[in-house]
Specification:
Blueprint: E1 3-12, E2 15-25, E3 30-34, H1 41-49, E4 56-61, E5 64-65, E6 76-79, H2 91-101, H3 106-119, H4 135-147, E7 153-157, H5 165-182, E8 185-190, H6 193-199, E9 202-207, E10 210-215, H7 217-222, H8 227-232, E11 237-240, H9 244-247, E12 257-260, E13 265-268, E14 276-285, E15 289-296, E16 301-307, H10 308-314, E17 321-326, E18 330-331
Parallel strand pairs: 3-8, 3-9, 6-7, 7-8
Antiparallel strand pairs: 1-2, 1-4, 4-5, 9-10, 11-12, 12-18, 13-17, 14-15, 14-17, 15-16
Length: 338
């Protein structure tokens, strides 16, 4: 067992940040806590770390009850969004800090620091100060410092949120490779769906202090458990069930709204009995795919994603007459906006 969260709740004043959360994180796995602002993901991470105390419930770490343990006694590495490095210390000194606090012999400290510098690909930069590093390099120093004491659990609170898009994407791939080397049970908080999908073994989708769904990236994307999950993970069209695109196709729903992924809209230039008439409003080139905004004859606007090959085959132009039908659509008992 890595981490077990058992019926945990946390309230701040009148705000219920976390409500009766039950969660098991397998030892050695990399798990993302994903959700919008205010969903409770950072509070849950802080509860696991011991930075907050639950009002109810228990937290178990590697099979032992850690609910009332201090932060220092949990053997956890914690990485913040804004690095929290000591500006007056070199990279080496930053990484060595927690080891020296534990009075680790100097020879072991030196060996561990050099090992970590190589692991996070910063060999040769040990004598620099944080101000002499890029944002991505500073975040890697923060990760090395958290790993220095060989924690049982590594917690990361939006670790790449302060970085630009290119650096963030590079660091995501690096974090995945790093985890595959060290195999430390890792939990990271993010509101970036792509980040969670790309890096994690499992995603915990949170909303309003509760867990909406737990599953692999493929499971939560292909088989969302609720309207919220489908609307939050990946792009989606939300249409009334009375829309022409469903009536023409014979799709019958007892629910007022239907969810349709952009890649599940089939676009043709000739009609058939199951297609709805529409017009291309706008074409957006996104590199390897093309996004077409399409206005149905009933006034509803949908977004369709086409491969470049399919787009070239159709030879679509703005204002062109087209015919669309859903390949797959989903309806849920209740939908609430994020």
């Amino acid at each position: 067992m890595g981490i077990l969260v058992e019926n945990v709740s946390k309230q701040f004043g009148s705000f219920q940040a976390v409500s009766q959360v039950n969660l098991e994180i397998k030892s050695g796995s990399l798990v993302a806590l994903l959700g919008p602002s205010g969903s409770g993901k950072s509070t849950l991470l802080r509860l696991i770390a011991g930075l907050e105390t639950p009002d109810t419930g228990r937290i178990w770490l590697t099979g032992e009850d850690a609910t009332n343990r201090s932060v220092q006694d949990r053997n956890i590495g914690f990485v913040f969004q804004h690095y929290a490095l000591f500006k007056h210390m070199t990279v080496r000194k930053n990484i060595a800090f927690s080891l020296e606090l534990r009075k680790t012999p100097a020879t072991k400290v030196k060996a561990r620091v050099e090992e970590l510098l190589e692991l996070v690909q910063l060999s040769g930069l040990g004598d620099r100060y944080p101000s002499q590093l890029s944002g991505g390099q500073r975040q890697r120093v923060a990760l090395a410092r958290a790993l220095a004491v060989e924690p049982q659990v590594l917690l990361l609170d939006e670790p790449f949120g302060a970085l630009d898009a290119k650096v963030r994407k590079d660091l995501r791939a690096w974090l995945r490779r790093l985890h595959d080397e060290v195999h430390v049970t890792t939990v990271f908080v993010t509101h970036d769906q792509e980040e969670a999908m790309e890096v994690s073994d499992e995603i915990v989708v949170m909303n309003k202090g509760k867990v909406e769904q737990i599953g692999s990236p493929a499971e939560v994307y292909d088989h969302p458990a609720s309207a919220f999950v489908m609307s939050f993970i990946g792009p989606v069209n939300v249409l009334p069930s009375t829309s022409h695109i469903f009536q023409a196709n014979g799709f019958d729903s007892a629910h007022p709204e239907v969810f349709l992924r952009p890649q599940d809209i089939l676009v043709e230039t000739t009609p058939d009995v199951s297609s709805a008439a529409a017009r291309v409003s706008r074409i957006i080139h996104l590199g390897w795919e093309v996004q077409a905004e399409i206005t149905l004859d009933d006034g509803q606007v949908v977004t369709a994603h086409l491969t470049r090959e399919r787009f070239d085959e159709l030879d679509l132009k703005p204002q062109q007459r087209v015919f669309v039908r859903p390949k797959e659509a989903k309806a849920f008992p209740l939908y609430y906006s994020i």
